[in-house]
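User: My instructor asked us to take a sequence, write out its structure as tokens, and then describe one feature of it. I'm not sure where to start. Here is the sequence I was given:
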Amino acid sequence: QVQLVESGGGLVQAGGSLRLSCAASGSIFSINAMGWYRQAPGKQRELVATITSRGDTNYANSVKGRFTISRDNAKNTVYLQMNSLKPEDTAVYYCNAAKTVAGISLYDYWGQGTQVTVSS
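Assistant: Let's start with the prediction itself. The structure tokens for your sequence are:
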């Protein structure tokens, strides 16, 4: 089992910045990819950004150039730096940790979510 604890959400004005953190604990040796997803009211959960154990990153088109995902392996923590925030970035942000093979997730774990609200 892997436990994920998110922090860093909050209320910010459009154009502002926030940094989300996700600390992983437990059987983290099995994990080789971590990422952030978000779910806005009335919408499906969508991928925001992922990072592999090698440091390869992937971003949703809507956040490219504004968000940066990074990880600190010594702290078993992944971060999401969000700049130039827009009202449409408002959502609950979830941390995800996965065991993947050839890009396919075999199993994964989710955090409890942290609310990000961007006011116009």
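For the description part of your assignment, you could build on this observation: The chain has a mean pLDDT of 95. Try explaining in your own words what that tells you about the chain.
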